[in-house]
Amino acid sequence: MAGEPQDDCLFCKIVAGSIPATIVRETETTVAFRDINPQAPTHILVIPKAHYKNAAVLGAEAPQLAADVLAETQAVADEEKLESYRIVFNTGSGAGQTVWHAHAHVLGGRGMEWPPG
């Protein structure tokens, strides 16, 4: 069920504290932590504490929570002193989603080209 923790979800386990992560921010509804495979000098994931399988489901079923995630990306960028940064939501395996829990990548600290990868 959407919003409920999933036993087999890596990010739900991070939220629960059963898997360690380098947490940089936490609010009542979100957690932000450093990516273990960074693709830029700053690469932080911002996730809702509640489980939604991707950004599309999160936006459709919990728009205020989606807004919380997006607001936290700005807070992360501010704390990391990023003047320019990219926010990426991968939705579906064809777009590179590998963890089925909605999450935003905050990437910065280097120039970003367009179009991406």
TrEMBL record:
Motif Histidine triad motif: where in chain: 101-105
Highest taxon listed in the record's lineage: Bacteria
PROSITE patterns given in the database record: HIT_2 (PS51084)
InterPro entries: Histidine_triad_HIT, HIT-like, HIT-like_sf
An MF annotation (GO) of this entry: catalytic activity
UniProt-annotated catalytic positions: H103 (tele-amp-histidine intermediate)
Pfam families (UniProt xref): HIT
Annotated ranges, domain HIT: 10-117
Name under which the protein is recorded: Histidine triad nucleotide-binding protein
Organism field: Streptomyces fodineus
